[in-house]
Amino acid sequence: MAPVGGTAVQDHVALAEIELCGELIIAASAARERLSLESIDEVLRVAEERERATRAAG
Questions:
Q1: Which sign does the torsion angle of CA 24, 27, 30, 32 carry?
Q2: DSSP of the chain, one letter per residue?
Q3: pLDDT tens, the chain, 58 aa long
Q4: d(Cα 44, Cα 27) in Å, to the nearest integer?
Q5: CA–CA separation, 33 and 39 (whole Å)
Q6: Are 29 and 49 in contact (CB under 8 A)?
Q7: Which residues contact 31 (CB under 8 A, 6 or more apart)?
Q8: pLDDT score, position 21
Q9: Are 20 and 12 in contact (CB under 8 A)?
Q10: What is the residue extent of each domain of the chain?
């Protein structure tokens, strides 16, 4: 339980990881079979992140 007074700290990286994990769980529960590595990458938006990193480096 967080102390009273608004001293809770938000870790944006942890929140993003929790959101992605939730999306992966939803995709896995909706799938009829095991998710392929490509499907997992799609859910986790791996290609988008790689493209963003490439643009930032270039």
A1: negative
A2: -PPTTT-PPP-HHHHHHHHHHHHHHHHHHH-SSPPPHHHHHHHTTHHHHHHHHHHHH-
A3: 555 655 566 788 889 899 999 999 999 999 999 999 999 999 999 988 889 899 999 8
A4: 10
A5: 11
A6: no
A7: 39
A8: 94
A9: no
A10: 33-58
